[in-house]
Amino acid sequence: MADQPTSQPPKKLYIETVGCQMNVLDSELVVARLRDDGYELTQDIDQADAILYNTCSVRQHAEDKVYSALGRIKHLKRKKPDLAVGVLGCMAQKDQNLILRRAPHVDVVVGPGQLGRVPELLAKAKADAAPQLAVSLARNAGSRSHVTSSFDSYDADREPAVRPSPFQAYLRVMMGCDKFCTYCIVPSVRGPEQSRPPAEILAEARLLALQGVKEITLIGQTVNSYKHKAPDGRITRLSDLLAGLHDIDGVERIKFITSFPNDMTDDLLQAVRDLPKVSRYIHVPAQSGCDLVLKRMKRMYTASFYEDMLARLRETIPGASVSSDFIVGFCGETDESFEKTVGLVERSRFKNSFIFKYSPRTGTKADDLYPDDVPEEVKRHRNHVLLDLQMRISLEDNQAFVGREETVLVEGPSRTTTRKEGWDGPDQLTGRTHCDRIVVFSGPESLTGQFARVKIQTASAVTLFGRLAAVPDAGAACPG
Ligand code: 5AD
Ligand code: SF4
User: Fold this and answer.
1) How far apart are CA 174 and CA 226, in angstroms?
2) Would you say the CB of residue 330 lies under 6 angstroms from ligand 1?
3) How far is the CA of 450 from the centre of ligand 2 (A)?
4) Atom 16 of ligand 1, nearest CA residue
5) pTM of the full predicted structure?
6) Which of 46, 98, 419, 428 has its CB 3.0 to 4.6 Å from that of 414, i.e. a possible disulfide?
7) Contact 184 CB / ligand 2 (< 6 Å)
8) What is the C-alpha separation between 55 and 18, in angstroms, rounded?
9) Is any ligand 2 atom within 6 A of the Cβ of residue 222?
10) Which residues, 6+ apart, have CB-to-CB distance to 98 below 8 Å?
11) What are 246-297's pLDDT values in tens digits?
Protein backbone atom coordinates (compact mmCIF):
# COMPACT_ATOMS: atom_id res chain seq x y z
CA MET A 1 0.00 0.00 0.00
CA ALA A 2 1.33 3.49 -0.87
CA ASP A 3 2.42 5.77 1.99
CA GLN A 4 0.03 8.58 2.76
CA PRO A 5 1.50 12.09 2.57
CA THR A 6 1.15 13.30 6.19
CA SER A 7 -0.37 16.65 5.20
CA GLN A 8 -3.30 15.06 3.33
CA PRO A 9 -6.06 13.18 5.15
CA PRO A 10 -7.15 10.00 3.36
CA LYS A 11 -9.98 10.42 0.86
CA LYS A 12 -13.13 8.54 1.79
CA LEU A 13 -14.70 5.95 -0.47
CA TYR A 14 -18.29 4.73 -0.28
CA ILE A 15 -19.11 1.74 -2.50
CA GLU A 16 -22.38 -0.13 -3.01
CA THR A 17 -22.54 -3.43 -4.85
CA VAL A 18 -25.60 -4.79 -6.62
CA GLY A 19 -25.84 -8.24 -8.19
CA CYS A 20 -23.89 -11.46 -8.17
CA GLN A 21 -20.73 -12.77 -6.47
CA MET A 22 -18.70 -11.66 -9.47
CA ASN A 23 -19.60 -8.07 -8.59
CA VAL A 24 -18.77 -8.59 -4.91
CA LEU A 25 -15.32 -9.73 -5.96
CA ASP A 26 -14.94 -6.90 -8.50
CA SER A 27 -15.74 -4.38 -5.76
CA GLU A 28 -13.10 -5.93 -3.54
CA LEU A 29 -10.54 -5.46 -6.29
CA VAL A 30 -11.59 -1.85 -6.99
CA VAL A 31 -11.28 -1.04 -3.28
CA ALA A 32 -7.81 -2.61 -3.22
CA ARG A 33 -6.72 -0.38 -6.11
CA LEU A 34 -8.22 2.74 -4.51
CA ARG A 35 -6.55 2.01 -1.15
CA ASP A 36 -3.24 2.18 -2.96
CA ASP A 37 -4.40 5.54 -4.27
CA GLY A 38 -5.00 7.00 -0.80
CA TYR A 39 -8.68 6.16 -0.23
CA GLU A 40 -10.16 4.56 2.85
CA LEU A 41 -13.60 2.98 3.11
CA THR A 42 -16.53 4.69 4.81
CA GLN A 43 -20.03 3.39 5.49
CA ASP A 44 -21.30 6.98 5.74
CA ILE A 45 -22.27 8.25 2.33
CA ASP A 46 -22.40 11.87 3.56
CA GLN A 47 -18.68 11.71 4.42
CA ALA A 48 -17.60 10.27 1.07
CA ASP A 49 -15.22 11.93 -1.39
CA ALA A 50 -16.07 9.24 -3.94
CA ILE A 51 -19.33 7.28 -4.28
CA LEU A 52 -19.24 4.21 -6.51
CA TYR A 53 -22.05 1.88 -7.58
CA ASN A 54 -21.01 -1.49 -8.92
CA THR A 55 -24.03 -2.45 -10.96
CA CYS A 56 -25.94 -5.40 -12.43
CA SER A 57 -27.98 -5.61 -15.64
CA VAL A 58 -29.49 -9.07 -15.31
CA ARG A 59 -32.95 -7.73 -14.45
CA GLN A 60 -34.60 -4.32 -14.83
CA HIS A 61 -35.17 -4.07 -11.09
CA ALA A 62 -31.40 -4.03 -10.43
CA GLU A 63 -30.96 -1.15 -12.88
CA ASP A 64 -33.86 0.82 -11.43
CA LYS A 65 -32.26 0.57 -7.99
CA VAL A 66 -29.08 2.22 -9.26
CA TYR A 67 -30.88 5.09 -11.00
CA SER A 68 -32.84 5.82 -7.82
CA ALA A 69 -29.65 5.73 -5.75
CA LEU A 70 -28.05 8.16 -8.23
CA GLY A 71 -31.10 10.42 -7.89
CA ARG A 72 -30.80 10.38 -4.09
CA ILE A 73 -27.19 11.59 -4.10
CA LYS A 74 -27.67 14.51 -6.52
CA HIS A 75 -27.95 16.94 -3.59
CA LEU A 76 -24.60 15.72 -2.17
CA LYS A 77 -22.87 16.61 -5.39
CA ARG A 78 -24.42 20.10 -5.26
CA LYS A 79 -23.20 20.56 -1.68
CA LYS A 80 -19.74 19.14 -2.42
CA PRO A 81 -18.72 19.78 -6.02
CA ASP A 82 -15.46 17.82 -5.54
CA LEU A 83 -17.41 14.62 -4.81
CA ALA A 84 -16.71 11.96 -7.46
CA VAL A 85 -19.56 9.67 -8.54
CA GLY A 86 -18.99 6.48 -10.49
CA VAL A 87 -21.10 3.80 -12.13
CA LEU A 88 -19.14 0.57 -12.56
CA GLY A 89 -19.84 -2.91 -13.89
CA CYS A 90 -22.47 -4.38 -16.18
CA MET A 91 -24.79 -1.36 -16.48
CA ALA A 92 -21.78 0.80 -17.33
CA GLN A 93 -20.84 -1.55 -20.15
CA LYS A 94 -24.40 -1.94 -21.40
CA ASP A 95 -25.69 1.64 -21.20
CA GLN A 96 -22.51 3.73 -21.40
CA ASN A 97 -23.57 7.23 -22.54
CA LEU A 98 -27.19 6.71 -21.50
CA ILE A 99 -26.05 6.79 -17.87
CA LEU A 100 -24.35 10.15 -18.40
CA ARG A 101 -27.49 11.47 -20.08
CA ARG A 102 -29.83 10.23 -17.35
CA ALA A 103 -27.49 11.16 -14.50
CA PRO A 104 -25.24 14.04 -15.63
CA HIS A 105 -23.67 14.25 -12.14
CA VAL A 106 -21.84 10.96 -12.81
CA ASP A 107 -18.07 11.41 -13.29
CA VAL A 108 -16.91 7.94 -14.34
CA VAL A 109 -18.63 5.09 -16.17
CA VAL A 110 -16.44 1.98 -16.12
CA GLY A 111 -17.28 -1.45 -17.58
CA PRO A 112 -16.35 -4.74 -15.86
CA GLY A 113 -13.32 -5.23 -18.11
CA GLN A 114 -11.79 -1.85 -17.21
CA LEU A 115 -12.15 -1.78 -13.44
CA GLY A 116 -8.38 -1.80 -12.88
CA ARG A 117 -8.39 1.75 -14.30
CA VAL A 118 -10.83 3.28 -11.78
CA PRO A 119 -8.19 5.29 -9.82
CA GLU A 120 -6.71 6.75 -13.02
CA LEU A 121 -10.17 7.61 -14.38
CA LEU A 122 -11.30 9.30 -11.16
CA ALA A 123 -8.15 11.44 -11.24
CA LYS A 124 -8.64 12.27 -14.92
CA ALA A 125 -12.30 13.22 -14.42
CA LYS A 126 -11.18 15.68 -11.77
CA ALA A 127 -8.20 17.07 -13.69
CA ASP A 128 -10.17 17.53 -16.93
CA ALA A 129 -13.45 18.45 -15.19
CA ALA A 130 -15.10 16.08 -17.64
CA PRO A 131 -16.80 12.69 -17.26
CA GLN A 132 -14.75 9.63 -18.22
CA LEU A 133 -16.10 6.60 -20.00
CA ALA A 134 -14.11 3.34 -20.13
CA VAL A 135 -15.75 0.24 -21.50
CA SER A 136 -14.61 -2.82 -23.42
CA LEU A 137 -14.77 -2.90 -27.19
CA ALA A 138 -18.01 -4.26 -28.55
CA ARG A 139 -19.10 -5.67 -31.89
CA ASN A 140 -22.54 -4.69 -33.13
CA ALA A 141 -24.84 -7.35 -34.55
CA GLY A 142 -28.19 -5.85 -35.50
CA SER A 143 -29.60 -4.27 -32.36
CA ARG A 144 -27.24 -6.34 -30.25
CA SER A 145 -23.77 -5.38 -29.11
CA HIS A 146 -21.29 -7.89 -27.71
CA VAL A 147 -18.06 -7.32 -25.87
CA THR A 148 -15.28 -8.97 -27.82
CA SER A 149 -12.10 -7.80 -26.15
CA SER A 150 -10.42 -9.65 -23.33
CA PHE A 151 -10.40 -8.41 -19.79
CA ASP A 152 -7.43 -7.08 -17.84
CA SER A 153 -6.63 -9.38 -15.02
CA TYR A 154 -6.20 -7.55 -11.74
CA ASP A 155 -7.34 -10.34 -9.50
CA ALA A 156 -4.15 -10.63 -7.49
CA ASP A 157 -4.95 -7.33 -5.68
CA ARG A 158 -6.95 -8.76 -2.80
CA GLU A 159 -8.47 -6.53 -0.13
CA PRO A 160 -9.52 -8.44 3.02
CA ALA A 161 -11.40 -5.43 4.49
CA VAL A 162 -14.26 -5.59 1.99
CA ARG A 163 -14.81 -9.34 1.95
CA PRO A 164 -18.05 -10.79 3.27
CA SER A 165 -15.84 -12.07 6.11
CA PRO A 166 -12.07 -12.18 6.65
CA PHE A 167 -11.92 -15.98 6.38
CA GLN A 168 -14.16 -16.42 3.33
CA ALA A 169 -13.22 -15.27 -0.16
CA TYR A 170 -14.30 -15.56 -3.76
CA LEU A 171 -11.75 -16.56 -6.35
CA ARG A 172 -12.46 -16.02 -10.04
CA VAL A 173 -11.51 -18.96 -12.23
CA MET A 174 -13.06 -17.74 -15.43
CA MET A 175 -14.49 -14.62 -16.95
CA GLY A 176 -17.35 -14.09 -19.38
CA CYS A 177 -19.77 -16.59 -20.86
CA ASP A 178 -20.18 -18.20 -24.28
CA LYS A 179 -23.56 -19.84 -23.78
CA PHE A 180 -25.75 -16.94 -24.94
CA CYS A 181 -28.99 -18.10 -23.32
CA THR A 182 -31.51 -15.98 -25.18
CA TYR A 183 -32.79 -14.09 -22.10
CA CYS A 184 -29.40 -13.24 -20.66
CA ILE A 185 -27.42 -10.03 -21.01
CA VAL A 186 -24.27 -11.39 -19.32
CA PRO A 187 -22.37 -12.64 -22.41
CA SER A 188 -22.90 -9.27 -24.14
CA VAL A 189 -21.51 -7.24 -21.25
CA ARG A 190 -18.93 -9.56 -19.73
CA GLY A 191 -17.49 -10.85 -22.97
CA PRO A 192 -16.38 -14.27 -24.14
CA GLU A 193 -15.54 -17.13 -21.82
CA GLN A 194 -11.88 -17.11 -20.72
CA SER A 195 -10.40 -19.54 -18.22
CA ARG A 196 -7.58 -18.13 -16.10
CA PRO A 197 -4.29 -20.04 -16.05
CA PRO A 198 -4.23 -22.56 -13.17
CA ALA A 199 -0.90 -21.28 -11.82
CA GLU A 200 -2.44 -17.82 -11.37
CA ILE A 201 -5.46 -19.27 -9.56
CA LEU A 202 -3.36 -21.43 -7.25
CA ALA A 203 -1.03 -18.51 -6.45
CA GLU A 204 -4.02 -16.37 -5.55
CA ALA A 205 -5.44 -19.14 -3.36
CA ARG A 206 -2.10 -19.39 -1.51
CA LEU A 207 -2.15 -15.62 -0.97
CA LEU A 208 -5.69 -15.86 0.39
CA ALA A 209 -4.69 -18.70 2.73
CA LEU A 210 -1.82 -16.55 4.04
CA GLN A 211 -4.35 -13.77 4.69
CA GLY A 212 -6.33 -16.19 6.90
CA VAL A 213 -8.95 -17.35 4.41
CA LYS A 214 -10.35 -20.80 5.25
CA GLU A 215 -13.16 -21.03 2.73
CA ILE A 216 -12.68 -20.30 -0.95
CA THR A 217 -15.58 -20.14 -3.39
CA LEU A 218 -14.47 -20.46 -7.00
CA ILE A 219 -16.64 -18.32 -9.23
CA GLY A 220 -17.43 -18.28 -12.90
CA GLN A 221 -20.63 -17.76 -14.90
CA THR A 222 -20.36 -21.42 -15.95
CA VAL A 223 -17.66 -22.51 -13.53
CA ASN A 224 -17.77 -26.18 -14.48
CA SER A 225 -16.98 -25.30 -18.11
CA TYR A 226 -13.53 -24.23 -16.85
CA LYS A 227 -10.87 -25.55 -19.18
CA HIS A 228 -7.38 -24.14 -19.61
CA LYS A 229 -5.05 -25.20 -22.37
CA ALA A 230 -1.36 -24.49 -21.69
CA PRO A 231 1.02 -23.63 -24.57
CA ASP A 232 2.34 -27.22 -24.36
CA GLY A 233 -1.20 -28.50 -24.94
CA ARG A 234 -1.82 -29.63 -21.34
CA ILE A 235 -5.46 -29.28 -20.36
CA THR A 236 -6.55 -28.32 -16.83
CA ARG A 237 -10.18 -29.02 -15.91
CA LEU A 238 -12.11 -27.80 -12.87
CA SER A 239 -11.57 -31.20 -11.24
CA ASP A 240 -7.77 -30.75 -11.61
CA LEU A 241 -8.00 -27.27 -10.11
CA LEU A 242 -9.96 -28.61 -7.14
CA ALA A 243 -7.27 -31.22 -6.52
CA GLY A 244 -4.56 -28.51 -6.64
CA LEU A 245 -6.45 -26.23 -4.27
CA HIS A 246 -7.11 -29.13 -1.93
CA ASP A 247 -3.36 -29.39 -1.25
CA ILE A 248 -3.05 -25.81 0.02
CA ASP A 249 -2.53 -25.63 3.79
CA GLY A 250 -4.99 -23.33 5.50
CA VAL A 251 -7.72 -23.75 2.89
CA GLU A 252 -10.34 -25.89 4.64
CA ARG A 253 -13.42 -25.59 2.45
CA ILE A 254 -13.81 -25.17 -1.27
CA LYS A 255 -17.04 -24.41 -3.14
CA PHE A 256 -17.70 -23.52 -6.76
CA ILE A 257 -20.59 -21.63 -8.39
CA THR A 258 -22.41 -21.55 -10.87
CA SER A 259 -22.49 -24.80 -12.87
CA PHE A 260 -24.00 -25.41 -16.29
CA PRO A 261 -26.00 -28.68 -16.58
CA ASN A 262 -24.33 -29.86 -19.80
CA ASP A 263 -20.81 -29.60 -18.39
CA MET A 264 -21.34 -31.71 -15.28
CA THR A 265 -18.66 -34.24 -16.14
CA ASP A 266 -17.95 -37.46 -14.21
CA ASP A 267 -14.39 -36.38 -13.32
CA LEU A 268 -15.85 -33.29 -11.60
CA LEU A 269 -18.47 -35.27 -9.68
CA GLN A 270 -15.83 -37.77 -8.60
CA ALA A 271 -13.55 -34.93 -7.44
CA VAL A 272 -16.37 -33.55 -5.27
CA ARG A 273 -16.93 -37.03 -3.87
CA ASP A 274 -13.25 -37.78 -3.22
CA LEU A 275 -11.84 -34.47 -1.96
CA PRO A 276 -13.03 -33.93 1.61
CA LYS A 277 -12.42 -30.17 1.60
CA VAL A 278 -14.79 -29.71 -1.35
CA SER A 279 -18.37 -28.99 -0.26
CA ARG A 280 -20.95 -31.49 -1.37
CA TYR A 281 -23.02 -28.64 -2.68
CA ILE A 282 -23.69 -27.82 -6.32
CA HIS A 283 -25.61 -24.87 -7.74
CA VAL A 284 -26.80 -25.95 -11.16
CA PRO A 285 -29.68 -23.87 -12.57
CA ALA A 286 -32.42 -25.67 -14.52
CA GLN A 287 -34.30 -22.43 -15.46
CA SER A 288 -37.41 -24.36 -16.64
CA GLY A 289 -38.88 -27.85 -16.70
CA CYS A 290 -40.49 -27.46 -20.13
CA ASP A 291 -38.58 -28.49 -23.26
CA LEU A 292 -40.24 -25.87 -25.47
CA VAL A 293 -39.28 -23.10 -23.07
CA LEU A 294 -35.75 -24.51 -22.65
CA LYS A 295 -35.40 -24.52 -26.41
CA ARG A 296 -36.51 -20.90 -26.67
CA MET A 297 -34.09 -20.06 -23.88
CA LYS A 298 -31.37 -21.88 -25.89
CA ARG A 299 -30.29 -23.80 -22.80
CA MET A 300 -29.14 -26.68 -25.01
CA TYR A 301 -30.64 -29.47 -22.86
CA THR A 302 -34.03 -31.02 -22.23
CA ALA A 303 -35.77 -31.45 -18.89
CA SER A 304 -35.07 -35.18 -18.92
CA PHE A 305 -31.38 -34.56 -19.64
CA TYR A 306 -31.32 -32.29 -16.59
CA GLU A 307 -33.02 -34.93 -14.44
CA ASP A 308 -30.63 -37.65 -15.63
CA MET A 309 -27.70 -35.37 -14.79
CA LEU A 310 -29.17 -34.85 -11.32
CA ALA A 311 -29.58 -38.59 -10.81
CA ARG A 312 -25.96 -39.18 -11.86
CA LEU A 313 -24.80 -36.39 -9.54
CA ARG A 314 -26.65 -37.85 -6.56
CA GLU A 315 -25.53 -41.37 -7.33
CA THR A 316 -21.88 -40.27 -7.46
CA ILE A 317 -21.99 -37.90 -4.46
CA PRO A 318 -24.19 -39.35 -1.72
CA GLY A 319 -25.84 -36.66 0.41
CA ALA A 320 -25.10 -33.87 -2.10
CA SER A 321 -27.13 -30.69 -1.78
CA VAL A 322 -28.25 -29.15 -5.04
CA SER A 323 -29.73 -25.71 -5.65
CA SER A 324 -31.20 -24.20 -8.81
CA ASP A 325 -32.41 -21.04 -10.52
CA PHE A 326 -35.72 -20.72 -12.38
CA ILE A 327 -37.16 -18.03 -14.59
CA VAL A 328 -40.97 -17.87 -14.57
CA GLY A 329 -43.05 -16.12 -17.20
CA PHE A 330 -40.51 -16.43 -20.00
CA CYS A 331 -41.91 -15.60 -23.47
CA GLY A 332 -44.41 -18.25 -24.54
CA GLU A 333 -44.57 -20.01 -21.14
CA THR A 334 -48.10 -21.48 -20.96
CA ASP A 335 -49.86 -22.90 -17.89
CA GLU A 336 -48.90 -26.31 -19.22
CA SER A 337 -45.23 -25.38 -19.51
CA PHE A 338 -45.28 -23.94 -16.02
CA GLU A 339 -46.80 -27.17 -14.67
CA LYS A 340 -43.81 -29.02 -16.13
CA THR A 341 -41.50 -26.74 -14.14
CA VAL A 342 -43.57 -27.43 -11.01
CA GLY A 343 -43.17 -31.18 -11.69
CA LEU A 344 -39.40 -30.83 -12.06
CA VAL A 345 -39.14 -28.93 -8.77
CA GLU A 346 -41.35 -31.55 -7.03
CA ARG A 347 -39.10 -34.37 -8.15
CA SER A 348 -35.70 -32.68 -7.81
CA ARG A 349 -35.70 -31.93 -4.07
CA PHE A 350 -33.45 -28.89 -4.35
CA LYS A 351 -31.95 -27.53 -1.15
CA ASN A 352 -33.21 -24.16 -2.36
CA SER A 353 -34.16 -22.42 -5.59
CA PHE A 354 -33.79 -18.84 -6.69
CA ILE A 355 -36.89 -17.91 -8.67
CA PHE A 356 -37.00 -14.89 -10.95
CA LYS A 357 -39.74 -13.30 -13.02
CA TYR A 358 -38.60 -12.91 -16.62
CA SER A 359 -37.32 -9.41 -17.25
CA PRO A 360 -36.75 -8.57 -20.95
CA ARG A 361 -33.27 -7.15 -21.58
CA THR A 362 -32.60 -4.92 -24.56
CA GLY A 363 -29.79 -6.43 -26.60
CA THR A 364 -30.72 -10.07 -25.97
CA LYS A 365 -32.00 -12.49 -28.57
CA ALA A 366 -35.22 -13.18 -26.64
CA ASP A 367 -36.01 -9.48 -26.58
CA ASP A 368 -35.48 -9.28 -30.35
CA LEU A 369 -37.39 -12.41 -31.27
CA TYR A 370 -40.19 -13.08 -28.78
CA PRO A 371 -42.89 -10.87 -27.28
CA ASP A 372 -42.89 -10.63 -23.47
CA ASP A 373 -46.37 -12.16 -23.50
CA VAL A 374 -46.89 -13.43 -19.95
CA PRO A 375 -48.75 -10.76 -17.94
CA GLU A 376 -47.04 -9.43 -14.81
CA GLU A 377 -49.70 -10.84 -12.46
CA VAL A 378 -49.27 -14.31 -13.99
CA LYS A 379 -45.50 -14.04 -13.52
CA ARG A 380 -46.05 -13.01 -9.90
CA HIS A 381 -48.48 -15.87 -9.30
CA ARG A 382 -46.13 -18.47 -10.81
CA ASN A 383 -43.28 -17.06 -8.76
CA HIS A 384 -45.33 -17.55 -5.55
CA VAL A 385 -46.47 -21.05 -6.50
CA LEU A 386 -42.93 -22.23 -7.21
CA LEU A 387 -41.50 -20.54 -4.14
CA ASP A 388 -44.17 -22.06 -1.87
CA LEU A 389 -43.45 -25.50 -3.28
CA GLN A 390 -39.70 -25.06 -2.85
CA MET A 391 -40.16 -23.84 0.74
CA ARG A 392 -42.23 -26.94 1.56
CA ILE A 393 -39.50 -29.19 0.16
CA SER A 394 -36.71 -27.25 1.90
CA LEU A 395 -38.57 -27.55 5.21
CA GLU A 396 -39.05 -31.30 4.82
CA ASP A 397 -35.39 -31.81 3.92
CA ASN A 398 -34.17 -29.58 6.75
CA GLN A 399 -36.29 -31.47 9.26
CA ALA A 400 -34.31 -34.60 8.46
CA PHE A 401 -31.30 -32.85 10.08
CA VAL A 402 -32.99 -32.61 13.49
CA GLY A 403 -31.08 -34.76 16.00
CA ARG A 404 -27.93 -34.86 13.83
CA GLU A 405 -24.60 -33.27 14.71
CA GLU A 406 -23.10 -31.11 11.98
CA THR A 407 -19.74 -29.41 11.50
CA VAL A 408 -20.34 -25.71 11.02
CA LEU A 409 -17.92 -23.05 9.83
CA VAL A 410 -18.92 -20.15 12.09
CA GLU A 411 -19.47 -16.91 10.16
CA GLY A 412 -20.27 -14.58 13.10
CA PRO A 413 -23.26 -13.10 14.93
CA SER A 414 -26.54 -13.99 13.26
CA ARG A 415 -28.84 -11.38 11.84
CA THR A 416 -32.17 -10.60 13.46
CA THR A 417 -34.14 -12.25 10.65
CA THR A 418 -33.55 -15.65 12.21
CA ARG A 419 -35.48 -14.47 15.28
CA LYS A 420 -38.55 -14.11 13.10
CA GLU A 421 -38.28 -17.81 12.41
CA GLY A 422 -38.86 -18.56 16.06
CA TRP A 423 -35.46 -18.64 17.72
CA ASP A 424 -34.88 -16.37 20.71
CA GLY A 425 -31.76 -17.81 22.38
CA PRO A 426 -28.92 -15.55 23.53
CA ASP A 427 -25.59 -14.90 21.71
CA GLN A 428 -26.72 -16.16 18.37
CA LEU A 429 -24.06 -17.24 15.93
CA THR A 430 -24.55 -18.26 12.34
CA GLY A 431 -22.55 -20.52 10.08
CA ARG A 432 -22.91 -23.13 7.38
CA THR A 433 -22.61 -26.88 7.13
CA HIS A 434 -20.37 -28.42 4.49
CA CYS A 435 -23.49 -28.89 2.37
CA ASP A 436 -24.24 -25.14 2.56
CA ARG A 437 -27.11 -25.20 5.06
CA ILE A 438 -27.40 -22.21 7.38
CA VAL A 439 -27.12 -23.08 11.09
CA VAL A 440 -27.94 -20.75 13.98
CA PHE A 441 -26.85 -21.62 17.51
CA SER A 442 -25.75 -20.07 20.80
CA GLY A 443 -22.06 -19.58 21.45
CA PRO A 444 -19.34 -17.00 22.04
CA GLU A 445 -18.46 -14.61 19.21
CA SER A 446 -14.85 -15.79 19.57
CA LEU A 447 -15.85 -18.91 17.60
CA THR A 448 -16.11 -16.76 14.46
CA GLY A 449 -13.93 -18.24 11.75
CA GLN A 450 -13.69 -21.62 13.47
CA PHE A 451 -15.34 -24.98 12.95
CA ALA A 452 -17.85 -26.06 15.58
CA ARG A 453 -19.95 -29.19 16.06
CA VAL A 454 -23.60 -28.27 16.46
CA LYS A 455 -26.43 -30.58 17.43
CA ILE A 456 -29.48 -29.63 15.38
CA GLN A 457 -32.66 -29.18 17.45
CA THR A 458 -35.23 -27.57 15.17
CA ALA A 459 -35.44 -26.49 11.55
CA SER A 460 -37.22 -23.99 9.35
CA ALA A 461 -37.18 -24.00 5.53
CA VAL A 462 -34.06 -21.83 5.44
CA THR A 463 -32.30 -22.39 8.78
CA LEU A 464 -31.24 -25.21 11.08
CA PHE A 465 -31.23 -24.26 14.78
CA GLY A 466 -29.06 -26.08 17.28
CA ARG A 467 -26.77 -26.06 20.28
CA LEU A 468 -23.01 -26.12 20.44
CA ALA A 469 -21.75 -29.66 20.96
CA ALA A 470 -17.99 -29.23 20.53
CA VAL A 471 -15.25 -27.25 18.81
CA PRO A 472 -13.23 -29.74 16.77
CA ASP A 473 -9.72 -29.28 15.45
CA ALA A 474 -9.65 -26.72 12.68
CA GLY A 475 -9.97 -28.44 9.37
CA ALA A 476 -11.79 -31.50 10.61
CA ALA A 477 -13.60 -32.88 7.62
CA CYS A 478 -17.34 -32.47 7.66
CA PRO A 479 -19.35 -35.61 7.14
CA GLY A 480 -21.88 -33.69 5.14
N1 5AD B 1 -34.87 -12.23 -16.44
C2 5AD B 1 -35.02 -12.90 -15.28
N3 5AD B 1 -34.06 -13.64 -14.74
C4 5AD B 1 -32.88 -13.72 -15.39
N5 5AD B 1 -31.75 -14.40 -15.10
C6 5AD B 1 -30.85 -14.14 -16.07
N7 5AD B 1 -31.39 -13.31 -16.99
C8 5AD B 1 -32.66 -13.04 -16.59
C9 5AD B 1 -33.70 -12.26 -17.13
N10 5AD B 1 -33.58 -11.60 -18.27
C11 5AD B 1 -31.63 -15.28 -13.94
C12 5AD B 1 -31.28 -16.73 -14.34
C13 5AD B 1 -29.84 -16.83 -13.91
C14 5AD B 1 -29.80 -15.90 -12.71
C15 5AD B 1 -28.46 -15.44 -12.29
O16 5AD B 1 -30.58 -14.81 -13.13
O17 5AD B 1 -32.09 -17.61 -13.58
O18 5AD B 1 -29.47 -18.16 -13.57
FE1 SF4 C 1 -26.38 -16.04 -18.77
FE2 SF4 C 1 -26.79 -18.53 -19.71
FE3 SF4 C 1 -24.26 -17.56 -19.49
FE4 SF4 C 1 -25.65 -18.16 -17.27
S5 SF4 C 1 -25.03 -19.61 -18.89
S6 SF4 C 1 -24.44 -16.27 -17.64
S7 SF4 C 1 -27.75 -17.62 -17.84
S8 SF4 C 1 -25.89 -16.80 -20.84
Assistant:
1) 7
2) no
3) 35
4) 58
5) 0.91
6) 428
7) yes
8) 5
9) yes
10) none
11) 999 999 999 999 999 999 999 999 999 999 999 999 999 999 999 999 999 9
* One-letter amino acid of 55: T
Q: Could you tell me the pLDDT band of residue 208, with boundaries at 50, 70 and 90? A: very high
Which atom of ligand 1 is closest in space to residue 360's alpha carbon? 10
Per-residue model confidence (pLDDT) at position 419: 52
- Report the Cα 276 to chain-centroid distance in Å: 23
Task: Assess whether pLDDT exceeds 50 at residue 470.
Answer: yes
Q: For CA atoms 335, 339, 340, 344, give the dihedral sign.
A: positive
The CA 345 to ligand 2 mean position distance, Å, reads 20
Give residue 32's identity as a one-letter amino acid code.
A
Q: Compute the distance between CA of residue 92 and CA of residue 100 in angstroms, rounded to an integer.
A: 10
Task: Point out the ligand nearest to the CA of residue 364.
Answer: 1
Give mean pLDDT, residues 189-198: 91
Report whether residue 23 contacts ligand 1, using a CB cutoff of 6 Å: no
Distances (CA, A) of 172 to 13, 108, 208: 24, 25, 12
* Band of residue 417 on the pLDDT scale cut at 50, 70, 90: very low
Residue among 182, 221, 224 whose CB has most ligand 2 atoms within 8 A, to mutate: 221
